[in-house]
Amino acid sequence: METVEFKVEMVGIHEKRLRKCLSKLKGIEKVEVDANSQKVAVTGYAHRNKILKAIRRGGLKADFWSAQNELLNAYASASYGSLRFSNFNFF
């Protein structure tokens, strides 16, 4: 079993669409969504490229999570944390 992390652009109702796309794949055990950092962790036996393809087929922009995304997310939350308005970032 493997956990793969993805950066997915999430706006509003996209979490429901994401879960629907991933529910069609065999071997997915668990899906954790963090909408604030746009991070999705998928645990299961499915191949990471098949998971990415399923997310993109659902109409969502996605890529593998990297250390660079972690740094950018930490910087953005520290710099622009006070400029949030109902889950939309202005920067």
Automatic annotation (TrEMBL):
Residues 1-63 form the HMA domain. Pfam families: HMA (PF00403). InterPro entries: HMA_dom, HMA_dom_sf. GO terms for molecular function: metal ion binding. It comes from the Eukaryota. PANTHER family: HEAVY METAL-ASSOCIATED ISOPRENYLATED PLANT PROTEIN 20-LIKE, OS08G0512200 PROTEIN. This is HMA domain-containing protein. It comes from Tripterygium wilfordii.
